[in-house]
Amino acid sequence: MVRRFIAGAVCPGCGAQDTTAVELVDGVPQARFCVRCDFNDAAPTVAASMPRGRLEKPRLTDKADETPVQVVQIRDDR
């Protein structure tokens, strides 16, 4: 079992920031708790269909919103 603090998290019990930690067993969160108050709750289960990576913005399919490209030449007249 490994305990990791959650940076920037606010405890739902006492409202203190940076006092909430999570217990990990084989890399899977089991419970979260606060080191300041007696708050403790079980970690939510992660469904297999939920994405585990970074969420990405959907790609634009309509090209009408894009700004037209202008070609610019840089001249050096020394």
Summarize this entry quickly.
This protein has no helices and 4 strands. The chain has strands spanning 2-5, 20-25, 28-34, 40-42.
Please describe the structure with a list of short key phrases separated by commas or semicolons.
mainly beta; 4 strands
Structure characterization notes:
- The structure is a single chain.
- The protein is built from no helices and four strands.
- With 78 residues, it is mostly beta strands.
- It has a domain of 45 residues.
- Strand 2 and strand 3 form a beta hairpin.
- The model has no long low-confidence stretch (mean pLDDT 80).
How is the biggest beta sheet arranged? 4 strands, antiparallel
SSE topology string: EEEE
Q: What's the end-to-end separation, in Å?
A: 69 Å
Low-pLDDT windows of residues: none
Number of helices: 0
Helix content: under 10%
Strand residue percentage: 25-35%
Q: Which strand order do you get reading across the main beta sheet?
A: 1-2-3-4
- Overall structural class, as computed from helix and strand content, comes to mainly beta
Which word captures the global form?
elongated
Task: Average the pLDDT over all residues and give the rounded result.
Answer: 80
Rounded to an integer in angstroms, the radius of gyration calculated over CA atoms is 24 Å
Number of strands: 4
